[in-house]
User: What shape does this take?
Amino acid sequence: MDKVIVYLDDPAYARQHMAGGDVPTHWVLVACAPRMTHRISKWVSHSARENWRARWADKLFDQMVPALRARGDAVTPVLARGPLPELTRTLMAEHGAVRVLDVRRPRDRDDRGAAGPVPGTLLGLGAVLLLAVE
Assistant: This one.
């Protein structure tokens, strides 16, 4: 049986990138909950954050696990609670030599939540500044 560790945070996006083959697969689904901002984490207790992560992961697994099991695959759900490199080493030690697939949705925003600048916009702004200087 083929084993695959999959990091995911959005079921719809993950389904698009997880191809099921003819070989039965053991999926180790690792739910990567969205990060809470510093402002939120100041006012919410650690146990409340952990409860929210657990509920979030349960919803994600409810959307992913039944479809994978319906096609005959084995599924092991895991909630990421720390740095992914350490978790990957732990899971690889537990499951042996496996493939690792990262199907988390790409982030379009920076860590502060602001939309990142578009390169064309930067070029246009640079041209305007250059004309203003001349």
The first strand starts at residue 2 and ends at 8.
